[in-house]
């Protein structure tokens, strides 16, 4: 199995080089790892004050980093003697957060060969390693274990279908034994691990709840969106793909065209091709966030000013503001449910927005729970989308109950970050 694993790692890397001629993400994946160790050596030599503890936190991509952020923020505010190093596997995460100001350094994770793992860990010399949710890298875990470096996985969630729990999954189970503690989201995950005799498990919940709850308590305002929405009923569609947008157009286009109805859309990808596709599909008056000046007064920019107030669709064509934009909505539609799986629904639920998404949500506890609480609704057709949106618009009691279910659910699940940080405080010092 180890031989197959190592061949796969090498094949993945060199395949990215070839695919990179046709795919931007693959190109970034490969180029980001060319001369990577030179970059790491250069930066590490400048950021390790004597006596400081080094915390290494690894996230696969953007979504997992949202689970890491509350931990980083808590550690930063609680301890002064820390060096925090963040790594990403994917270009999506690295490119978005490579300048994250609470980390001392942000790197791509070198490919998981034994020599790379040994060299990387020697260079950064971590006192603690924290992996987020689903990161099980054989060689990194092996080197960390052999060097007696405390290693944790945080906000993990397990299902019976995973290889760890199959009769043939011994190799996968061996990876779990390299963690000192596994912090899981729910009791069911702990029960599954107990059944395979893994005992070092702590139920802490999902640190994303702490992240989204904190966002609601900030006073950040996005004035163009606030002005755009005004007193209208607004649906915010976040992290959408083409299939989601097609569903929304077929199901809600007649509603969007009404005077009292406005629509905010933030595609999962913000490249010009995607934005053009959205504009062409909906064919309604729109305004793009990127075209709005900081001072869009009626006197200075009358055309933009009028577009903001008169458009039916507000297109968020930049990264980083969607989580705040939800506060201006009444209903949220979250994309991804017709592909690999839904994106972050908690960013909307924390504001009390009833949440709608496609059928592929069963790998996400928060989605399952909110569906059961009538705070979230899964749809598989444009007609089903239209029916639930009309129900939420026209039945005030139904809407209020759904909204309150979302608010209560988030409120009851905050606190995971404190559990994690308290568990490692003796090492942090």
Spatial shape? globular
CATH architecture title of the largest domain: 3-Layer(aba) Sandwich
Overall number of structural domains:
3
What's the helical proportion of residues?
40-55%
Calculate the terminal CA-CA distance, rounded to whole Å.
39 Å
Q: Taking Cα atoms only, what radius of gyration do you get, to the nearest Å? A: 23 Å
CATH superfamily of the largest domain: Glycogen Phosphorylase B
Per CATH, the class of the largest domain reads Alpha Beta
What average pLDDT do the residues reach?
94
Q: Which secondary-structure class do the elements indicate? A: alpha/beta
Strand tally = 14
Strand content: 15-25%
Counting DSSP H or I runs of 4 or more residues, the number of helices is 20
Q: Main β-sheet, in a few words?
A: 7 strands, parallel
Oligomer: single chain
What is shown here, in short?
The protein has 429 residues and is of the alpha/beta class.
Considering the chains and any ligands shown, give keywords for the structure.
48% helix; single chain; Rossmann fold; alpha/beta; 7-stranded parallel β-sheet; 3 domains
SSE inventory with pairings:
Layout (H helix, E strand, L loop, with lengths): L1 H18 L4 H8 L4 H9 L8 E7 L2 H17 L3 E7 L2 H7 L7 E4 L5 H11 L3 E5 L5 H9 L4 E6 L13 H7 L4 E4 L2 H9 L5 E3 L4 H9 L6 H7 L3 E8 L1 H15 L4 E7 L4 H11 L3 E3 L13 H9 L2 E3 L6 H4 L5 E4 L11 H4 L5 E3 L7 H8 L3 E3 L3 H13 L1 H17 L3 H13 L1
Parallel strand pairs: 1-2, 1-4, 2-3, 4-5, 5-6, 6-7, 8-9, 8-12, 9-11, 10-11, 12-13, 13-14
Helix pairs in contact: 1-2, 4-10, 4-20, 6-7, 12-13, 12-18
